[in-house]
């Protein structure tokens, strides 16, 4: 490989790997004619291709090339040029990973398919003709894009529906949508499955090490895979290094590879789980179809729980792949094991005083998703909520699939009650679908032009415009990728803040709160940002939601209480001021002691303004603080049904209320030496049969130092020997004093011996 300033030398582990072509037959036996002066990119691709076992499809991930050539922009530009020149063919692997393959290798795959057809006795002529046309179409180089529409196949190849089905069965095409396909190499799914398993084993192996790092000497004897599909360690290292998941560190004992913080965030649950589909198919998510009178809409099954819901996306995340190049953590590793077990139960709320007009304080997706969330859980509000959601989708978005599905559900609810149904606006569906497709093609063409001109600001704006369009169409995953890609082109603090807020907004909608926290930290460390107070308020509110989702109520309360009232309705696409009052108040009540309630809640001028918007929460806080537990519990019971319809709070409301009740029981008993449990039961609006087990649990948890006199129904403080307690405290203070004295004597000796590190002048 030519030595240039952009090229990195392979490490010793790579040079001496036991998984080299000496033990496994690789594609090096089919050399690539590079010419006299190949560029760095094609040389790197040739080097990586020669490491791939011959039994595996010779696909080279672009992230692997990034590990060899540090200038990623040059790599992207060279690959674009070589794809247009017909030297390379680009493919999408998994849900979003990009890979390249030599055009000659891909054409050989088509020739191999033709040779397989020769063995068929019946129908071989038709299949041979189809492969000949497909070979001519690929070799012509007129279409170098990853995806292709059905109409283009009809026009360029004169293909029929039956021909497309045969190409799908042969793995040369995979489904992307109802009328669009992804061009793919054969056995790409097997390649990606083997590669994912090897990569997961590699990461899990390093994570088991004491310091999450491994020396080169151990890599020399490590294998990943089995049989003829053993993958060269150099391929795994190249991908993880190019994706930013591992980094090499020089030590006196040689190079050591260690995981980066990014890898810790992504592989929290020990690895990723890839789909079983081949390159780029939408079926990397489990799919189902909803059939209307005229339309068949392909949708994610987890839509039954709103996609912005933090817990609903845990199911979705288990089948999503990870885009390492774009630092998008939407895979299963973004959700910890304990959270995956806490699946939200869809409770039916039949009695509520909730007013749908309260949702007018939200904007955009937040309003629609909350309406759908309420419709799924509250039969009395179902029809009106679905009706409003359909109206907002039609008026303010281009999300056709969601509009059709919501309308179908509205009609199901109407039919169940014997009311006339609402027809789908087919004219709007057709018009919006065409407009969305045209706008996507236009924005992609503009972005490609900006990349060719290498104007950073234009590229940044192009990614943002495309991300906004995807977001408006309901494609949050692609929107997140576009927003994340702008990080390479930001030039001012405002650009950094805008990029972070876009990623945070979409990540919250996807339920990927681990990703949210990392971008919150990045935005907080950005200096000289305009409208700093509003930005910080948004970041505090986002951090509050992150900690609420993980049930860290004390930290969530801290962030909500620190949210400036300047936020008001500037973050209505995520949260409203009323939400901050409710979330902050309940989290504080469940986790703060009396002193913290006074100093951090009642004496907090900003939060007092939020509480003015929610008088019920304010009354709840004051009744608890003033030990009016009967009033406090009555207010909580009145609020419970409405809070179960809250988007972010519904899955945590039972735990919050249990914690508040537990605190109230402890606080009630703390001033007394003994308590009549009959009076205590009356104060908590319950009976002694239910109260006694609650107190027994508190005693077992050492939350209350007491004993129950079950015969007399009296709770008595467990007496402690104060004399022994004072002696123990005295001994503890003496030991501490002795330790401090030894430190002082050591310091004096060091000063006397002039063993002091002085500042340089």
UniProtKB/TrEMBL annotation:
Keywords: Coiled coil, Cytoplasm, Nucleus, Signalosome. SUPFAM superfamilies: Winged helix' DNA-binding domain (SSF46785). Its main location: cytoplasm. The keyword Coiled coil applies. Pfam families: CSN1_C, PCI, RPN7, Stk19. The keyword Nucleus applies. InterPro entries: CSN1_C (IPR048624), PCI_dom (IPR000717), Rpn7/CSN1 (IPR019585), Rpn7_N (IPR045135), STK19-like (IPR018865), WH_DNA-bd_sf (IPR036390). Transmembrane segments: none annotated. Belongs to the CSN1 family. This is PCI domain-containing protein. The lineage of its organism: Eukaryota, Fungi, Fungi incertae sedis, Chytridiomycota, Chytridiomycota incertae sedis.
């Amino acid at each position: 490989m030519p030595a240039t300033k952009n090229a990195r030398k392979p490490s010793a582990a790579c040079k001496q790997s036991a998984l080299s072509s000496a033990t496994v037959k690789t594609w090096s036996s089919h050399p690539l004619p590079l010419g006299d002066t190949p560029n760095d990119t094609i040389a790197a691709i040739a080097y990586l291709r020669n490491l791939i076992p011959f039994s595996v499809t010779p696909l080279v991930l672009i992230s692997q090339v990034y590990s060899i050539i540090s200038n990623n922009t040059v790599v992207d530009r060279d690959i674009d040029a070589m794809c247009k020149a017909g030297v390379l063919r680009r493919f999408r692997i998994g849900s979003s990973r990009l890979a390249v393959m030599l055009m000659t290798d891909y054409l050989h795959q088509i020739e191999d398919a033709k040779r397989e057809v020769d063995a068929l006795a019946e129908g071989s002529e038709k299949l041979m003709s189809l492969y000949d046309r497909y070979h001519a179409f690929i070799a012509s180089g007129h279409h170098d894009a990853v995806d292709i529409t059905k109409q283009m196949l009809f026009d360029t190849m004169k293909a029929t529906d039956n021909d497309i089905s045969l190409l799908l069965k042969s793995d040369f095409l995979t489904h992307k949508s109802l009328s669009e396909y992804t061009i793919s190499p054969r056995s790409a799914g097997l390649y990606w499955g083997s590669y994912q398993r090897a990569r997961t084993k590699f990461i899990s192996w390093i994570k088991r090490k004491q310091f999450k790092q491994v020396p080169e000497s151990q890599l020399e004897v490590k294998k990943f895979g089995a049989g003829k599909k053993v993958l060269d360690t150099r391929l795994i290292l190249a991908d993880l290094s190019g994706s930013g998941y591992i980094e090499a560190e020089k030590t006196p004992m040689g190079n050591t590879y260690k995981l980066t913080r990014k890898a810790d965030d992504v592989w929290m649950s020990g690895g990723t789980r890839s789909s079983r589909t081949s390159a780029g198919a939408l079926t990397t998510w489990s799919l189902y179809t909803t059939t209307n009178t005229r339309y068949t809409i392909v949708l994610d099954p987890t839509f039954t729980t709103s996609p912005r819901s933090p817990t609903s996306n845990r199911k979705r995340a288990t089948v999503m792949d990870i885009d390492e190049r774009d630092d998008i953590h939407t895979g299963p590793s973004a959700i910890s094991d304990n959270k995956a077990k806490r699946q939200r139960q869809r409770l039916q709320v039949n009695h509520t005083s909730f007013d749908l007009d309260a949702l007018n304080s939200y904007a955009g997706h937040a309003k629609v998703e909350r309406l759908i969330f309420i419709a799924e859980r509250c039969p009395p509000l179902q029809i009106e909520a679905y009706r409003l959601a359909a109206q907002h989708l039609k008026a303010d978005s281009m999300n056709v699939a969601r509009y059709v599905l919501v309308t179908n559900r509205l009609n199901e609810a109407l039919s169940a009650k014997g009311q006339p149904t609402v027809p789908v606006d087919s004219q709007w569906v057709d018009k919006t679908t065409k407009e969305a497709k045209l706008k996507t093609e236009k924005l992609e063409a503009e972005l490609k032009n900006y990349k060719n001109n290498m104007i950073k600001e234009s590229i940044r704006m192009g990614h943002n415009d495309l991300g906004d369009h995807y977001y408006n169409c309901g494609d949050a995953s692609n929107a997140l990728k576009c927003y994340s890609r702008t990080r390479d082109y930001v030039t001012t603090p405002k650009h950094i803040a805008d990029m972070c807020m876009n990623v945070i907004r979409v990540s919250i909608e996807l339920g990927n709160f681990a990703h949210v926290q990392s971008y919150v930290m990045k935005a907080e460390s950005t200096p000289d940002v305009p409208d700093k107070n509003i930005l910080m308020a948004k970041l505090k509110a986002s951090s509050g939601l992150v900690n609420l989702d993980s049930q860290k109520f004390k930290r969530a309360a801290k962030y909500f209480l620190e949210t400036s009232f300047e936020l008001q309705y500037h973050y209505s696409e995520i949260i409203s001021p009323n939400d901050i009052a409710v979330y902050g108040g309940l989290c504080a009540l469940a986790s703060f002691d009396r002193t913290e309630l006074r100093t951090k809640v009642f004496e907090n001028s900003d939060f007092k303004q939020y509480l003015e918007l929610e008088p019920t929460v304010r009354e709840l806080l004051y009744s608890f603080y003033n030990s009016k537990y009967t009033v406090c519990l009555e207010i909580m019971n009145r609020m419970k049904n409405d809070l179960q319809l809250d988007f972010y709070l519904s899955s945590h409301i039972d735990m919050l209320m249990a914690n508040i009740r537990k605190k109230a029981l402890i606080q009630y008993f703390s001033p007394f030496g003994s308590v009549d449990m009959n009076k205590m039961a009356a104060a908590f609006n319950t009976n002694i049969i239910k109260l006694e087990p609650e107190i027994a649990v508190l005693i077992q948890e050492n939350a209350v130092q007491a004993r129950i006199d079950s015969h007399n129904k009296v709770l008595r403080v467990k007496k402690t020997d104060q004399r022994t307690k004072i002696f123990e405290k005295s001994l503890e203070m003496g030991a501490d004093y002795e330790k401090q004295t030894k430190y002082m004597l050591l310091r004096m000796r060091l000063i006397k011996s002039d063993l002091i590190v002085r500042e340089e002048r």
